[in-house]
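Action item from last meeting closed. Structure (303 res):
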């Protein structure tokens, strides 16, 4: 009996070791999605009253947990009964990341600052209008953020599933569940901090100590730049992660990347990143063209 117990403990320890290793790998691979996840979710509460920002973040965080409670069992079912679907799903997720990243770039270059300013002004006027139903507006914000989270969560779960596809069911369950919980707490904890950084800066700037005032003013100046930095980092990560997934899934691209890395010597890592980014940009452009063509064809067919 003692030997059986020791064997069981050894199995548990081995499983936990595998879980820790695979969780670390999965976390590294899904980190690319997080920059955009943070920026998107922080932007979702823009326009919400300051005292309602944290309740909105909390509501979206709960919705995110519900999303992952749906996605994790779905991922486990796919791994158990349709393991052949893991790679295609990863490829679709990678292509979507590239598309979303390129769409952001296209929006930045195809839409003027005046158009964005006009949209912001229209939103501000709507919020100041006493006829505007703020409860309905907040509810719409939350629903929109949860829909966005579902897409990003699906990408995270798909990437994680690809990491643990050959592991045991127990390891898959623990890694997927662990990543789902940690990512949700991490993302929405950081989002809560990001959306309140300006309030914290304002509070500190009104303190009597000079160092607190300087820190507060610095936080107020840094807040908009932090959002911009997160958005830029998130967009870049979309091309790197999406391009990396496509590079590993397409044999021709994978061999080309390996050949370039072999000839680069000590700069192989930079060549790999550059190749993934270039492939991500090309894939994103192709996806955007296809989506726009489909949209035009549908619009034409409805006339």
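Sequence:
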């Amino acid at each position: 009996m003692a030997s059986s117990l020791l064997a069981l403990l050894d199995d548990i320890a081995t499983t936990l070791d595998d879980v820790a290793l695979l969780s670390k790998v999965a976390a590294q691979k899904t980190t690319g999605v997080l920059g955009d996840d943070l920026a998107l979710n922080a932007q979702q509460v823009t326009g919400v009253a300051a005292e309602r920002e944290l309740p909105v973040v909390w509501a979206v965080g709960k919705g995110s947990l519900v999303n992952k409670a749906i996605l994790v069992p779905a991922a486990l079912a796919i791994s158990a009964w349709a393991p052949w679907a893991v790679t295609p799903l990863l490829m679709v997720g990678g292509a979507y990341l590239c598309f979303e990243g390129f769409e952001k770039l296209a929006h930045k270059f195809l839409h003027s600052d005046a158009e964005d300013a006009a949209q912001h002004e229209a939103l501000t006027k709507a919020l100041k209008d006493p006829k505007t139903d703020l409860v309905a507006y907040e509810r719409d914000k939350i629903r929109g953020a949860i829909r966005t989270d579902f897409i990003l969560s699906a990408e995270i779960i798909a990437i994680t599933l690809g990491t643990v596809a050959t592991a045991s069911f127990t390891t898959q369950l623990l890694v997927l569940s662990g990543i789902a919980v940690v990512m949700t707490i991490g993302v929405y904890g950081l989002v809560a901090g990001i959306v309140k950084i300006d309030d914290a800066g304002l509070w500190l700037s009104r303190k009597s100590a000079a160092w607190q005032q300087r820190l507060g003013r610095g936080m107020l100046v840094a807040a908009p730049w932090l959002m911009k930095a997160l958005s830029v980092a998130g967009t870049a990560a979309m091309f790197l992660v999406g391009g990396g997934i496509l590079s590993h899934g397409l044999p021709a691209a994978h061999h080309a990347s390996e050949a370039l890395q072999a000839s680069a010597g000590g700069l192989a890592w930079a060549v790999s990143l550059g190749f993934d980014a270039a492939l991500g940009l090309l894939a994103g452009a192709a996806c955007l063209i296809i989506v726009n063509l489909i949209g035009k064809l549908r619009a034409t067919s409805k006339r």
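Note appended to the action item: The chain has one domain: 17-302.
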